[in-house]
């Protein structure tokens, strides 16, 4: 199927991450960590080229086996690659995310 110019203009790349926090944190500590991750990552909106939307979901139902989710959108795959190495993103990831998470699942796709 051939895409139209309008469809190509509307195409974007979605970047979805699910994390589990490391074991041993109290409920209060988990909430603080999740809020700091949310504030840090959502604070990147408007600061990284090609990042068009970013949201961190910290609330979940008891049936969940992940502690939080990143739902972000990029203009294109090149923008996602730029985000991954951008100093502002790396600073948040290294200080607010990686030290506190034990598992990370990622799904990137064109939408």
What does this structure look like?
- There is one protein chain.
- This protein is an alpha+beta fold.
- It has one domain: Alpha-Beta Plaits (2-Layer Sandwich), CATH 3.30.70.100.
- The protein is 38% helix and 30% strand.
- The chain contains four helices and four strands.
- The chain has helices spanning 5-10, 27-42, 77-85, 87-97; strands spanning 13-21, 51-57, 68-74, 101-110.
- Strands 2-3-1-4 form a four-stranded antiparallel beta sheet.
- Helix 2 (27-42) runs antiparallel to helix 4.
Tell me the series of helices and strands, N- to C-terminal. HEHEEHHE
Helix/strand-derived class? Answer: alpha+beta
How many domains? The number is 1
Number of helices: 4
Total strand segments:
4
* Spatial strand order of the main sheet: 2-3-1-4
Strand % is: 25-35%
- Please give the radius of gyration in angstroms: 15 Å
Low-confidence segments: 1-7
Task: Describe the sheet with the most strands.
Answer: 4 strands, antiparallel
Could you estimate the helical fraction of the residues in percent?
25-40%
CATH-scheme architecture: 2-Layer Sandwich
Distance between the termini: 16 Å
The 3D shape can be described as globular
CATH topology: Alpha-Beta Plaits
Mean pLDDT: 93
């Amino acid at each position: 199927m051939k895409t139209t110019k309008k469809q190509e203009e509307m195409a974007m790349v979605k970047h979805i991450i699910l994390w589990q926090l490391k074991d041993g944190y109290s409920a209060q500590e988990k909430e603080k960590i999740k809020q700091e991750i949310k504030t840090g990552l959502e604070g990147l909106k408007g600061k990284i080229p090609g990042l068009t939307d970013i949201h961190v979901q910290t609330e979940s139902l008891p049936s969940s086996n992940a502690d939080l989710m990143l739902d972000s959108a990029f203009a294109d795959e090149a923008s996602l690659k730029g985000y991954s190495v951008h100093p502002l993103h790396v600073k948040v990831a290294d200080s607010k995310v990686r030290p506190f998470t034990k598992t990370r699942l990622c799904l990137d796709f064109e939408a």
